[in-house]
Amino acid sequence: MKFVFPCKEYEKNAAEFIQEFKDYASEMHGLGGLADYLERSTYSDWLQKVIRDIDVANMPENRVPAITYFYVREADDKIVGMINIRLALNDFLRKEGGHIGYSIRPTERGKGYGTSMLRGALQFCRSIGMENFLITCDKVNVASAGVAKNNGGILEEEFYSETYKTVVQRYVIK
């Protein structure tokens, strides 16, 4: 498995990745806006957004710097997951979004990819000086909670989110 920074060469793979979520009527979290861009705009526009997300010096006030990666299986170059790492938090993310959002494609779930993807992302984050992490998920998303727990996540709080209209769990990883 490897992390791949989004690029033009992965356009077809990215479209297939998102289509699988639609085919399975699966929620899409931790995708760095990819699904929205493919619906309303273009993959090229999304790539420009991904670059803007890491441009810390020119970050708009309402945004936080973030890095998005595809999690790719090297044997067949298939995008198995995506991860969005927020390098800072605003008030909303501190409460309801957390530092890291992630998603595994429906046909690849239950194989340990989420746990290993988050582990790799945490290693990266620690290498650039980040120490404590907030991870949130819907309470009904037991698999996502398991990924957080498998990486040392401790349930800090459970609350009803007016934004998402569901109970959200917030985990802390130290």
Characterise this structure.
The longest helix has 15 residues, at 113-127. It is built from six helices and seven strands, in the order E-H-H-H-E-E-H-E-H-E-H-E-E. The chain is globular. The chain has one domain (2-131): Gcn5-related N-acetyltransferase (GNAT) (Aminopeptidase, 3-Layer(aba) Sandwich), CATH 3.40.630. The two termini are 24 Å apart. Strands 1-2-3-4 form a four-stranded antiparallel sheet, sandwiched between helices. The mean pLDDT is 94. Helices cover 36% and strands 27% of the residues. It is of the alpha+beta class and 174 residues long.
Task: Report a brief summary of the structure.
This protein has 174 residues and is of the alpha+beta class.
* Poorly predicted runs of 5 or more residues: none
Beta-strand portion reads 25-35%
Number of helices: 6
Spatial strand arrangement across the major sheet: 1-2-3-4
Secondary structure category = alpha+beta
Radius of gyration: 15 Å
Gap from first CA to last CA: 24 Å
CATH arch. level architecture: 3-Layer(aba) Sandwich
Order of helices and strands: EHHHEEHEHEHEE
Number of strands: 7
**CATH fold title:** Aminopeptidase
Fourth-tier CATH superfamily name:
Gcn5-related N-acetyltransferase (GNAT)
Question: Sheet with the most strands?
Answer: 4 strands, antiparallel
- Fraction in helix: 25-40%
* Morphology: globular
Mean pLDDT: 94
